[in-house]
Q: What sequence folds into this?
């Protein structure tokens, strides 16, 4: 394979000169690297019957990191030049002037790849993409007279990264990523409601759009909006909650995922920091964080420190087994990196992050769960969530939900926030379904101001007690 | 050092010239550079240093009513040549939109007033470290404090905005920001809270010791929270949460939401949407204001707008494109508001707390629970139960919910407005909302 991106081609500094600066700067450090990145991305947006935005972005830069004990020194710039790299080096040295460490070279090797080296942007012409967006608009508007607004967009990206470590070791990856989103707004009898759906992952647009697949994305967005048009106020208070499979696994991401990231546990600021080896979920609940599923949005061949990703078991049959680690937190906690070191781009430092976080299947059916509920809600689709990792309290916002009355699904209810307590909520899971499903591939996780693409998956589950934030007392 | 005006202007005019040569009928360009230096402390020790030097360019080209844009962080001429060619090519292939255009020439800013937005002072890392030492010392007094993380950032930015109508202007801005996040623990619970100060001028920044003490006090008082039952109760929003409600209001009156019909405030100009005494201002010319500016991101001059007068909505926030669509002139709000605030109410903070025998004081909300299409609002919340004007005990794992259309009509504001952020509100009470708890 040809070298993907020669970062030094148009620069006044050669690769070997850069390698020397890296080795010199990091000689007394415990860890660190020069991270180079070139991202090409495009956005195409149809809104209000028109192509509203057609834009292309090309982003190039480096981030230089040196670590000694717990101290991280970081410097980044857009200019890959002798001057700029030297200035960064001086910056790092001045922060770490009085410290010394032993450079840890070891990065595990793997030949596995979880996506192809493609540039999705170039695989489809601008005209073809505009044509599909217009077809989406016409298709939806001809389907339902109550449609007042249609928004559809393509987001495509190719990110090339190279990691140069002390001694000249180089690790590279080329990561494609696409997203296709549709949102519709309906208006009927003066009431407005919207529905959103999308698909995406690390492969070409064609994979998601072949055979007019885009129609099923449109249908789903319209279906959610139509359901919401008939929704009544959501109840307020503690009750039983059945979650559908797939996207509702945002629950897992917020309730336990963030709390199991290495940094918060090293600092002992996570509600989980002293629970390793203990029961944190009901029997039958197994949760993994997996970066190795082909073409998934949260998958990575190597993480942003060069470590190959893996399938990390976080909770096995209810027992807490592992945290997610980057190299810094792993070293300080005397364990190994799980290939979870990620950054939004070269402007940011590496943090331990989730990839595809999944609860594995159990034996029960969704039907059994609904039948087991006298009064509660059935939540199918979610907009997002958030967690306070210290208190452990987390929320997630449902965008499609129904009431359950005497074991039967009733009327749709308005979107509401659900709130729970991370370390205790998974102990309230009383049934785990046999229908595990991946999300459609559109999730972005935010932490410390950095957004990274992630995935989630789960089967249907029944939670005995959660607080539903509706308005109906 | 942040790049000077001359460098940015040269890049801008190069791009405009090249776009024209390649067939663009009109174009606009924004070039910016931002240099920021951060030092982080954790548990009274140096934890991280971070220096960033960001260059950015964004070019929009028009061919008649066709439009496309590109952006990049690579300002080398070689790269700009490729990108501008790509941009003009994409413009040719993008369908026409009758509302696409540069701003009307007579709306462009004619002068750049000095609003004192740039402080030349350079704070060396050693000075940042001194500030953080003092801060963390004050924050760590109580033995219930188990983790402190504090940060000091100096940012210097410069930009040039230019277009083919002859507009070419920009200026430097600076900010100095200190923050502290504290974790406290007792037998029953572990809680986190924070305090923050950000100013254009270093000398205006909050005292390190006071900031640290404030952050610690706010965290300790949250320990051993309780969950309350579900009920309808008056909610008092701390200033740092109340400003978020004002931001939601601003997104609901943005001309893009209005022209697309996706806002619960569409067609509400000249109607009463807030309670009687409420006034909302957006004032771009506050000296040293965190949201101050001379013109918006299209170069249109920004004047003060009284968005809400005695509860009545008077203006939308209008940019060129959506203005043309709505048949309204841009009022210089491309990219949103400047210094947005509720004018003071006429009741003191203490009297507001005392005005109900029982209320809930909210200091933090989590979740993205604001829907501007329907006005529905539902978020997770943390705070305190207030009885007869006294903070009784901390509360968590509850949600608060309502609909902005009703909430806005039941707002009472205290008279304690301060300009701590770009968007500011006095302490706010809203009656009629529902708390979901046990």
A:
């Amino acid at each position: 394979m040809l070298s993907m991106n020669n970062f030094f081609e148009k620069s006044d500094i050669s690769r070997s000169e850069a390698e020397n600066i890296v080795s010199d700067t990091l000689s007394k450090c415990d860890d660190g690297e020069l991270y180079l990145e070139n991202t090409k991305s495009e956005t195409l947006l149809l809104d209000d019957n028109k192509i509203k935005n057609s834009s292309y972005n090309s982003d190039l830069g480096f981030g230089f990191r040196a670590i000694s004990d717990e101290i991280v020194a970081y410097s980044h710039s857009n200019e890959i030049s002798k001057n700029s790299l030297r200035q960064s080096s001086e910056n790092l040295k001045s922060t770490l002037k009085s410290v010394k460490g032993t450079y840890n070279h070891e990065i595990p090797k793997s030949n596995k790849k979880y996506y192809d080296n493609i540039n999705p942007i170039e695989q489809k012409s601008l005209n073809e993409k505009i044509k599909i967006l217009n077809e989406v608009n016409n298709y939806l508007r001809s389907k339902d007279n109550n449609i007042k607004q249609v928004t559809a967009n393509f987001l495509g990206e190719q990110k090339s990264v190279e990691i140069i470590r002390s001694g000249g070791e180089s690790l590279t990856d080329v990561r494609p990523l696409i997203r296709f989103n549709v949102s519709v707004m309906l208006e009927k009898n003066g009431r407005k409601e919207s529905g959103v759906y999308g698909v995406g992952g690390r492969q070409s647009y064609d994979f998601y759009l072949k055979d007019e697949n885009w129609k099923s994305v449109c249908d789903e967005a319209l279906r959610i909006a139509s359901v919401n048009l008939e929704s009544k106020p959501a109840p307020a208070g503690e009750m039983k909650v059945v979650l559908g499979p797939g996207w509702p696994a945002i629950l897992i991401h917020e309730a336990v995922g963030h709390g199991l990231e290495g940094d918060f546990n090293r600092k002992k600021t996570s509600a989980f920091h002293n629970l390793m080896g203990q029961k944190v979920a009901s029997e039958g609940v197994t949760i993994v964080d997996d970066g190795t599923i082909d073409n998934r949005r949260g998958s990575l061949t190597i993480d942003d420190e060069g470590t190959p990703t893996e399938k990390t078991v976080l909770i096995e049959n209810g027992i807490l087994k592992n945290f997610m680690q980057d190299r810094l937190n792993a070293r300080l906690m005397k364990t190994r990196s799980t290939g979870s070191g990620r950054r939004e781009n070269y402007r940011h430092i590496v943090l331990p992050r989730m990839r595809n976080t999944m609860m594995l299947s159990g034996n029960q059916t969704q039907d059994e769960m609904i039948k087991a509920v006298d009064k509660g809600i059935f939540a199918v689709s979610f907009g997002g969530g958030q967690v306070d990792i210290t208190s452990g309290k987390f929320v997630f916002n449902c965008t499609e939900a129904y009431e359950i009355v005497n074991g039967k699904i009733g009327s749709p209810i308005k979107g509401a926030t659900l709130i729970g307590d991370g370390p205790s909520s998974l102990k309230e899971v009383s049934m785990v379904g046999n229908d595990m499903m991946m999300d459609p591939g559109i999730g972005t996780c935010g932490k410390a101001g950095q957004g990274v693409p992630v995935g989630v998956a789960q089967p249907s589950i029944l939670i005995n007690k959660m607080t539903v934030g509706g308005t109906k007392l | 050092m942040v790049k000077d005006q001359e460098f940015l202007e040269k890049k801008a005019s190069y791009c405009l010239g090249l776009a024209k040569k390649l067939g663009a009928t009109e174009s606009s360009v924004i070039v910016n550079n931002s240099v920021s230096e951060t030092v982080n402390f954790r548990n009274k020790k140096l934890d991280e240093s971070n220096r960033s030097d960001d260059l950015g360019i964004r070019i929009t080209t028009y061919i008649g009513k066709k439009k496309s844009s590109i952006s990049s962080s690579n300002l080398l001429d070689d790269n700009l040549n490729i990108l501008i060619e790509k941009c003009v090519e994409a413009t040719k292939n993008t369908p026409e939109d009758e509302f696409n255009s540069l701003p009307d020439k007579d709306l462009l800013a004619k002068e750049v007033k000095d609003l004192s937005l740039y402080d030349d002072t350079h704070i060396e890392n050693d000075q940042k470290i001194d500030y953080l030492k003092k801060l963390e010392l004050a924050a760590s007094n109580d033995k219930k404090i188990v983790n402190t993380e504090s940060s000091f950032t100096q940012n210097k930015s410069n930009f040039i905005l230019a277009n083919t109508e002859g507009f070419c202007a920009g200026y430097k801005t600076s900010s100095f920001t200190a923050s502290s996040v504290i974790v406290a623990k007792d037998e029953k619970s572990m809680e986190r809270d924070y305090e923050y100060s950000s100013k254009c001028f270093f000398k205006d920044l909050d005292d390190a010791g006071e900031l640290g003490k404030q952050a610690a006090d706010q965290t300790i008082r949250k320990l051993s929270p309780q969950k309350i039952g579900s009920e309808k109760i008056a909610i008092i929003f701390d200033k740092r949460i109340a400003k978020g409600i004002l931001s939601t209001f601003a997104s609901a009156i943005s001309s893009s939401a209005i022209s697309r019909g996706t806002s619960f405030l569409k067609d509400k100009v000249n109607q009463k949407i807030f309670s009687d005494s409420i006034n909302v201002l957006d004032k771009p010319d506050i000296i040293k204001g965190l949201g101050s500016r001379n013109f918006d991101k299209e170069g249109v001059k920004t004047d003060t707008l009284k968005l809400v007068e005695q509860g009545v909505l008077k203006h939308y926030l209008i940019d060129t494109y959506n203005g043309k669509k709505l048949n309204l002139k841009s009022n210089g709000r491309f990219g949103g508001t400047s210094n947005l605030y509720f004018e003071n109410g006429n009741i003191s903070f203490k009297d507001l707390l005392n005005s109900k025998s029982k209320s809930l004081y909210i200091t933090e909300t989590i979740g993205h629970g604001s829907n501007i299409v329907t006005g529905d609002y539902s978020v997770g919340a943390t705070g305190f139960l207030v009885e007869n004007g006294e903070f009784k005990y901390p509360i968590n794992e509850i949600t608060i919910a309502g609909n902005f259309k009703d909430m806005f009509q039941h707002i009472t504001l205290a008279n304690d407005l301060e300009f701590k952020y770009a968007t500011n509100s006095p302490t706010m009470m809203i009656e009629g909302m529902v708390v979901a708890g046990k």
Summary: The two ends of chain A are 63 Å apart (CA to CA).
